[in-house]
Design goal:
alpha/beta, binds adenosine-5'-diphosphate, binds the ligand N[C@@H](CCC(=O)OP(=O)(O)O)C(=O)O, Glutamate_5-kinase_CS, G5K_ProB, kinase, Glu/AcGlu_kinase
């Protein structure tokens, strides 16, 4: 039986910290999935709808209004999916879009529908690409950069591993954070201890910072799932983390 892995990809990873969605990064992710697909079953939670829209349109706003972000997400999401679809197709991979919010997971009927849909997709080798449905929910664009959605979905779909791709080599020790040589915390068993290492800093496109990733890991841990926080900016980050060839943080189940 294949191991089920949920990968959360933030806007910073998808844009490689620029103002453009990086087709190269999407291809990098697709190439790795194609390489590993006989052994693993992948589910993606991808942000990046707002970042994609910003490439194409300028809406009247001061950059902070939630309704403008929702509109940007509505504009960017189909374009983002188009890029995934084109890049993955070339690698022989089929993609699909699943939009929901974590409050949908609290509704029994919606839960069953989400589970049924995703199970049929996976059984047919179609990769589910999940994002928050930002037209009807604003939870994640307000607070949590899809980290919570990814963790609750990971728990709900009983995945074997939650991999959160971000723009650092995992979680750094607080004392090394200001220096030139940040030091990755490699393995953690206690979430409480980890909370002390986090600063409130967030990156250019990010919304939740490292705190929301720790909260996500805590949700996963309660469900018996290990979380890895990996540098998605690096080429080959999925394969290299599986082979333990890069520094990243493992939060034990
Ligand atoms: N202890 C820490 N180790 C690493 N990064 C940290 C830490 N504390 C805060 N951060 C910040 O969290 C950021 C990652 O979160 P975020 O900006 O929301 O990215 P993403 O778009 O990947 O969700 C890092 O770029 C860093 O600035
Ligand atoms: N649903 C939104 C998520 C926005 C967001 O800030 O997420 P992230 O890039 O993970 O910090 C989008 O796709 O743009």
């Amino acid at each position: 039986m294949k191991k089920r892995v949920l990968i959360k990809i933030g806007s910073n990873t998808l844009t490689k910290e620029t103002n453009q969605i990086s087709r190269g990064k999407i291809e990098d992710i697709g190439r790795q999935i194609a390489l590993l697909k006989e052994e693993y079953e992948f589910i993606l939670v991808s942000s990046g709808a707002i970042a994609t829209a910003k490439q194409f349109v300028k809406l009247e706003h001061n950059g902070q209004e939630i309704d403008v972000k929702q509109a940007l997400a509505a504009i960017g999401q189909p374009r983002l999916m188009h890029i995934f679809q084109e890049s993955f197709r070339e690698l022989g991979l089929f993609t699909s879009q699943c939009l929901f919010s974590y409050s949908d997971l609290e509704n029994e009927k919606a839960r069953v529908n989400i589970e049924n849909t995703i199970n049929v997709l996976l059984a047919n080798d179609v990769i589910p690409i999940i994002n928050e449905n930002d037209t009807v929910a604003t939870d994640e664009i307000k607070f949590g950069d899809n980290d919570k959605l990814a963790a609750l979905t990971a728990a709900f779909l009983k995945v074997d591993l939650l991999l959160i791709a971000t723009n650092t080599d995992g979680i750094y020790t607080k004392e090394s954070l200001d220096g030139k040589l940040p030091e990755t915390i490699k393995e953690v068993a206690s979430i409480t201890e980890l909370g002390k290492e986090v600063s409130s800093v967030k990156s250019s496109h990010g919304t939740g910072g490292m705190q929301s990733k720790i909260e996500a890991a805590s949700i996963a841990k309660k469900a018996g799932i290990e979380t890895w926080i990996v540098n998605g900016l690096k080429d080959n980050f999925i394969v290299d983390s599986f082979r333990d060839q890069i520094h990243f943080t493992k939060i034990k189940a």
